[in-house]
Specification:
Helix 9 (260-274) crosses helix 10. This protein has helices at 48-61, 78-90, 104-112, 132-142, 155-163, 165-172, 188-200, 216-222, 260-274, 280-294, 322-327, and strands spanning 3-4, 7-8, 20-22, 33-38, 70-75, 93-99, 116-120, 146-148, 179-183, 205-211, 254-258, 303-308. The strands form three sheets. The chain has a six-stranded mixed β-sheet with strand order 3-4-12-9-10-11. Strand 6, helix 3 and strand 7 (116-120) form a beta-alpha-beta unit. The radius of gyration is 20 Å and the shape is globular. It is α/β, with parallel strands linked by helices and 346 residues long. The protein binds 4'-deoxy-4'-aminopyridoxal-5'-phosphate. The site of 4'-deoxy-4'-aminopyridoxal-5'-phosphate (PMP) has 16 residues, from helix 7.
């Protein structure tokens, strides 16, 4: 890792070591101090850079990956972008099976990064041959010299965050963190970070963020996989229709569910109040913080870290489009259309 005067050998040297940024306005009425771990500062603009780099380098060390091999993965977009970025630098081919729920911007970005892409229907069960899990498995079997990252069922996904995100947050808060609030998709981020933090201080409270329409929260509470919980929702990258082994449910204290609508509005509010342009799940995580504050979770001594997984630029045709928001009915109730801030000079 050659770094002198901010000159780097390649883009991968910039993965990790993201800033912790104090939230000053959106949380002003709340008890305690609130900090955002802003993962958009990774070179691929999301927390998935850590996972992609860590898993690929582990596979290289074990001799599983050789030059010219192919890396295959299922991804809602961010992991794909990170794997494609690492593949370019390290000389691998990259095949990605993505969900049809992913925004067109994300798919275009993956194409630009040289990946071969298969778009799979979002609303089929995980064991359907058309699901992105099954498509990735099939491609792995059919492609000689291929490695399937399988982030939902790969312990290294947890280890990546145990070895980077966790220690960074511990150091940045000088060991004073009281709460970690993080979204759970594969569960790698929350599980690895929580494991490290709880090893330093078992009293750190870890709260996961889940979507309505996902099985994760109920599974945490009952250890029962309840198919009846499953229905389509809009937030990408959060919640699941299966139980990933990359989620360590024992290091998570509780889960909070958030709605698509409130999460979208809260993401927009983060931009307007803190000047931080972050993604949909960052809005979800912040929405969870609001609900926890209302439920009396925090006091004046709380030092809360909320993890913002990615950058807002990936959602221009979704939550940052007034048209999309209107089409979803998200401006119908208490919220009015934000377009009034634009004036057209004729
Ligand atoms: N937010 C976004 C935008 C994501 O893409 C993901 C990953 N699916 C997450 C949050 C959740 O992170 P993890 O998979 O580590 O639980």
């Amino acid at each position: 890792m050659a770094q002198k005067n901010q000159v780097f050998d390649n883009v991968l040297d910039l993965v990790g070591n993201t800033p912790l940024i104090k939230l000053n306005t959106i949380t002003a009425p709340f008890k305690g101090e609130f900090y955002a771990k802003v993962e958009a500062f990774n070179p691929g603009h999301s927390s998935k850079d850590r996972v992609a780099l860590y898993i690929i380098e582990q596979a290289e060390r074990q001799g599983i990956l050789k030059p010219g091999d192919t890396i295959i993965e299922t991804t809602s977009g961010n992991t794909g972008f990170s794997i494609a970025m690492v593949s370019i630098i390290k000389g691998y081919d990259c095949i990605l099976a993505v969900s049809s729920k992913s925004s067109p911007d994300k798919i275009d970005m993956l194409k630009t990064m040289g990946a071969k892409i298969y778009v799979c229907p979002a609303n089929v069960s995980a064991d359907d041959p058309r699901s992105y899990y099954e498509v990735a498995k099939r491609l792995h079997e059919e492609t000689k010299g291929s490695v399937y990252i399988n982030q939902y069922f790969n312990q290294l996904n947890i280890d990546a965050h145990y070895n980077s995100t966790g220690p960074e947050i511990w150091e940045q808060t000088e060991g004073e963190i009281t709460h970690l609030i993080a979204c759970s998709g594969t569960g790698g981020t929350i599980s690895g970070t929580a494991k490290y933090l709880k090893e330093q201080n078992p009293n750190v409270k870890v709260i996961g963020v889940d979507a309505f329409g996902s099985v994760i929260k109920k599974y945490h509470e009952t250890r029962e996989f309840d198919e009846k919980e499953i229905y389509p929702y809009r937030i990408e990258g959060l919640g699941k229709n299966l139980i990933p082994t990359a989620t360590d449910f024992d290091v998570i204290d509780s889960f909070v569910k958030v709605t698509d609508e409130e999460s979208a509005h809260t993401a927009r509010e983060i931009a307007k109040t803190e000047g931080l342009f972050v993604g949909y799940t960052s809005g979800a995580a912040m929405q969870a913080v609001k609900q926890l504050e209302e439920a009396g979770e925090f006091d004046k001594n709380s030092k809360v870290v909320v993890l913002f997984p990615d950058h807002g630029s990936r959602y221009m045709s979704k939550i940052y489009s007034d048209k999309w928001m209107t089409d979803q009915g998200f401006f119908d109730s208490k919220n009015k259309v934000a377009a009034e801030s634009i004036q057209y000079i004729k």
